[in-house]
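Let us practice reading a record.
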Amino acid sequence: MKTAVLYFIILFVNTSIAVASKPKETAKKSTEKYFVVDLDNSQNADFKLTYVELNTKKLYGVDKKIELFNLLTKNGNLILLSVLPGKISDNIWKEIDPSSLKDKIIDWNQLNAFRIEATRAYSSSCKDLYEHVKRNDINLVKKENGKYFKSSSCITEFFSVENKPRMFTSQNDIASINIYSSAVTLKDFDSRYKELYNEPSPNYHDLPNVLKFPMDKPLLFLSGTSTVDSKKAYHFWGFMDWGISDSPNYRRGIDRFIFIPELGIVGGSFDFYFDYLLDKNRKRENYLNEAVLAPIKINGKLMGS
């Protein structure tokens, strides 16, 4: 049964594979925007906040920090803001005077409007879909101990959290985290794909033709489960394109991740961002084994303590 499901998924995916001209990178908009998260008062009527600290040493060989901020709404939507280290400095935050940002700060209603916009773009597979679903023009500002800090680099991604089985992940309104999906490991998928089509899946980023991309829209697949901090955690991997070869491919976003329903995304990988640090074999090993950055802290709590 598992083989039949896997075969069906691969056939479905392959019908949408295309070779396209080089797509436009998710570019910074002319006016940067800033969203403020208050860690001094994390209670919020609009969303539940979960913030997570990761370390890149084990996966990418460099000792740098990544912070994830989950904004989980009551109606099953998740906005993930991932704060990444700068290319020059390891610092991911810089202290600022919030008044210096003036009219660049957006509120929750504006951020949620971007989520709605992303949902519409996803359902219609519009031309600039990735610029709506995976944005790098919204910087995060965190308030902590009465001080304000601006992120060095930030990716904002929009998800829905599904609570019922579906035949195809493309039936969802936006990239969907569905814990009721049939589990398919990335290794099994990739192996079966190569058997059927005699080439690696275009989901892998070291293809001879990097401009080959798999789908009009990114899809998420459940891989399996584990336990994180005594909670059941679900592992997902993304099926999406690697259509940019000469600059960071922000449209990949967090391409593998760990999800806990009551918390959000608590671990993941950013292969596009650290691609230059690894040789081909290491990248392939991380990809097939679905290697991810595990949480060091969740909401300030040190894991394992």
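A brief commentary: DSSP finds six helices and 19 strands in the chain.
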